[in-house]
Design goal:
This protein starts with about 20 loop residues before the first strand and ends with a helix. β12 and β13 form a beta hairpin. The chain is globular and about 80 Å long. α1 packs across α3, α4 crosses α10 and α8 packs parallel to α9. A 5-stranded mixed beta sheet has the order 3-2-1-6-11, with helices on both faces. The protein has a 5-stranded mixed beta sheet with strand order 14-13-12-17-18, with helices on both faces. Strands 7-10-8-9 form a 4-stranded antiparallel beta sheet. The protein has 3 domains: about 170 residues, 2-Layer Sandwich (Nucleotidyltransferase, domain 5), CATH 3.30.420; about 80 residues, 2-Layer Sandwich (Dna Ligase, domain 1), CATH 3.30.1490; about 150 residues, 2-Layer Sandwich (Nucleotidyltransferase, domain 5), CATH 3.30.420. The chain contains 11 helices and 18 strands. It is an alpha+beta fold.
């Protein structure tokens, strides 16, 4: 239940896997399913995405996702088949068999809650019991309902208002305070995800929020420290994660992605989805200038017998379809950040994901967010060319980095865990009583 199954680290340096260790990850997205297998080649290189430099790719496999909608499992058999195909391809390339995998999570409407508390220190210095008491007090403020806790991550610890890097055991003071980021999601969709993985005869060694993994895959240490929002633009979802002070502090998602742009083009130009995707990729732009009506594009028209004829449209017509959808998507993300209060600490936007390769996207995002924007992809992973490490591989690469050097997690104190479980049981009893009365 705690930290999605990842190893629990409560303080000190993040522990990395030894040289020679094998890591396998599974990125289950709405448009594609990807498996990566890597080995630890060297010791820590430093920095979040810098951890990739310690790894060497052994095998890689990807396939079109079937039975997956909006990051959630819609058909178990189709989803299982997609997972098997991606893993089989990676295993053949790597010439190894894998069973344990780290998996991304984008389903279940993930929600991040920030909870805080402060307690009086017993004695002259902070003890492990003080840390546990303060953590329990913060977690006691959670509005958990029936949600599943995926991650429990420390944001800050402070003694008498002075922040510490880790749990400040041994420091002298009067008041200990903490702020914790808790990621929760709907349990039913999470269980369906686990079931699809189990049907493929795989064991999830850990689950990582997709947006968090994307950040680990592309952000530099300075970006994580100074306050950055990484926006992962996928096929049907756009995820955002905020990092500040080197820590994850917020995440959200909007149910709009690159596939929606393709659909808009197909409808607007009366062509097939395949041709719409080609037009978007080769000629599409989110920039609002630079193309006049004299540049014509050949568009196959969709008719009763398939493609009946070809007509020509100005490139500006394609831009007029694409830009409003991109603006809408980025504005939705901005509004979520503003509403949560997370926008106040952001000095930089980093765009990644398969849909981030669109021309003019950086300029459009810069206008909407009013800050520095860059388009990023993973770098430094050995055994694969830099040209192959596109933004579409950000989540899978971030999973590798997280598996190699897991985030610091908080162990939920026993008292807090019992209280949360009692709250969940109370919800279950109320639901059962309501069902009984309804029947």
């Amino acid at each position: 239940m705690v930290a999605g199954g990842l190893r629990v680290i409560t303080g000190g340096r993040i522990q990395t896997l030894p040289v020679g260790s094998l890591i396998s990850v599974l990125d289950i997205g709405s448009s594609k399913t990807t498996c990566m297998i890597a080995t630890v080649e060297s010791g820590p290189q430093g920095g979040p995405s810098g951890h990739l430099r310690s790894l060497r790719m052994l095998g890689y496999g990807t396939t079109v996702s079937r039975g997956i909608s909006g990051g959630a499992i819609a058909n178990l058999e189709d989803a299982e088949r997609s997972i098997r195909l991606a893993v089989d391809a990676a295993e053949k390339n790597a010439r190894v068999r894998v069973q344990d995998v780290y998996v991304n999570v984008s389903c279940g409407k993930p929600r991040t809650q920030l909870v805080s508390a402060h307690v009086k220190i017993h004695g002259s210095s902070v003890s492990p019991r003080d840390v546990e008491t303060c953590t329990a007090a913060a977690l006691g403020k959670l509005a958990l309902g029936r949600s599943h806790m995926l991650h429990v991550l420390p944001v800050t610890f402070a003694v008498d208002g002075v922040e510490a890097e880790d749990a400040p055991v041994g420091m002298h003071g009067d008041i200990l305070s903490t702020e914790i980021a808790v990621v929760t999601l709907e349990p039913s969709r999470f269980h369906n995800l686990k079931m699809a993985i189990a049907r493929a005869h795989l064991h999830p060694q850990g689950f990582v929020l997709s947006a968090m993994a994307a950040g680990r895959g592309v952000l530099t240490a300075d970006e994580m420290s100074l306050g950055t929002a990484v926006i992962d633009m996928g096929g049907s979802l756009t995820d955002v994660a905020v990092f500040r002070g080197g820590r994850f502090v917020f995440s959200d998602s909007v149910a709009v992605g690159g596939a929606h742009v393709t659909n808009d083009v197909a409808h607007g130009l009366a062509t097939t989805l395949a041709h719409a995707e080609r037009l978007k990729t080769m000629f599409g732009t989110a920039a609002g200038f630079g193309h006049d009506d004299r540049e014509l594009l050949a568009v196959p028209l969709l008719g009763e017998r398939g493609v009946d004829s070809i007509h020509h449209v100005p490139r500006s017509a394609l831009t007029a379809i694409i830009r409003p959808r991109i603006e809408e998507t980025l504005e939705m993300v901005r509004d979520r950040l503003v509403a949560s209060g997370a926008m106040a600490g952001i000095s930089r936007i980093v765009l990644t994901g398969g849909a981030s390769q669109l021309q003019g996207l950086r300029e459009c995002a810069s206008e909407i967010f009013g800050c520095v924007v860059r388009v990023a992809q993973p770098v430094g992973l050995q055994g694969i060319s830099e040209q192959s490490l596109t933004g579409a591989m950000a989540v899978a690469s971030g999973l590798l980095a997280t598996a190699y050097a897991p985030e610091r997690m908080l162990a939920v104190p026993e008292a807090a865990r019992n209280a949360l479980e009692r709250a969940n049981m109370g919800y279950a009893r109320r639901l059962g009583r309501w069902l009984k009365e309804a029947l």
